[in-house]
Known about the structure:
CATH class of the largest domain: Alpha Beta
Structural class: alpha/beta
InterPro entries: Bact_solute-bd_prot1, SBP
Number of domains: 2
Strand content: 5-15%
Protein name: ABC transporter substrate-binding protein
CATH topology of the largest domain: D-Maltodextrin-Binding Protein, domain 2
Pfam families: SBP_bac_8
Keywords: Signal
Helix content: 40-55%
CATH superfamily of the largest domain: Periplasmic binding protein-like II
Organism: Lacrimispora algidixylanolytica
Largest sheet: 7 strands, mixed
Number of helices: 19
CATH architecture of the largest domain: 3-Layer(aba) Sandwich
Amino acid sequence: MKQRLLGKKTMAIAMAALMAAGTMTGCSAGGKENTETAETTKKETTGAVTATSTAKDGQASTGEIKPCTIKFRYWADNTDYSQLMQDIIKKFNAENGKGITVVGEETPWDGGAYSENLFNAKMGGGDIDCATWKLTSTPLFVNNDLLADLTPFIDAWDKKSDIDENIYNIMVEAGDMERVYVMPWNIQVLYVYYRPSIFKKAGIEVPKTYEEFLEAIEKCTMDTNGDGKTDVYGFGMRGAKGGQEPWGSFVNGRGGSFKDLTTPEAVQGMQDFVDVYKKGYVPPTAISDGFSEIIANFKSGLTAMTIHHTGSSKDMEKVFGDDVSAFPFPTGKGQWTSMGDTETVIFNSCENKAAAFEWVSYLAAGEGQKMWCEGTGNVPVSKSIQASDFFQNNRFMKASIDGQGYAGIVPILDTTTEWISSLWPNTVSQALTGSITPEQCMRTLQDGLYQ
């Protein structure tokens, strides 16, 4: 199903979507150039380096690279991350050997205003060559011809296979369904947290299938002191805003998908979601529980399992030590988990895209990838870096990495922001309380997403 791209409605609507998601000269200019292919004839130019697809340390590009300055805009969540990015830039500038100088310009995320400000800057002719990115911004920028097509660069890159094909597919889906405009950088993959001690008490192993997962939810719902009341609920359900992500795993586990939420398989996944609520396998507050509530319930021991990503793993270990672990959402007729994202892009206005690709590929699979992901705790996209002991010996990272091959995103459409913030929680709430049937719920969600 081809997506309807943002930008077809008014600019005000497009900017609202961006907000909800979330001076050096050189390679910055208002003109455009066609991306050179890997077969471009090598030129001998004084003071220039011709890059090939065998550049070392995760750097590669097509075409000729001349010494130049690349202006890079990024945001950092805290001062430590800000310093880390500056350290990465400094290392790249010292070691790239091609005369490329990256100049980092930090601006705040500001609740998603980063994307709006970036759009305004580029529409106004701003001299930014490349930037850190969120997928939700892609359609608007593509519709306005602001992003460079990275497909030929990636195809010529010797480290292309170092990133899972599914990650590239997600990048394509966020754009025009044909080309890659976004370079992978780091991800957050949702997995299932669980308490080994509760699993032991329930007499169960880590579930390997979706059906076993549903059984584990039931068996981990227990009255531990014999007073006739549930003390531990099997699962921490997120029924409020943001709950569409773990919910999507139930739908796909039955063989459904976001392409058509009205199929029998998708409806059955919704029925499973309703059943675990009605049967008392989740806290009675689940309808209104958001991120803070599901994490608090898990930390207090009220729930045996919940779904989140590595961002909360350090706090979990502080509370439980070794009595907390994780597993990737298991497979049924289908398998899916939500992927959070942070990427990079190169703008069409960049005069030397080959040089800019050297930088973004360094972040994707070079030393910049290693430094950033080890320093921030985000999941790397580079398979070779994922394979290092640093990530493989971390059970939460391992669960994330194991889930990357089937991770995905909610379709990015004109309707997505309203669907996530309002339609999904309101409609699912009605289904959980029995005001509407699972079939009616899924029809409403389908119509709202693809209207």
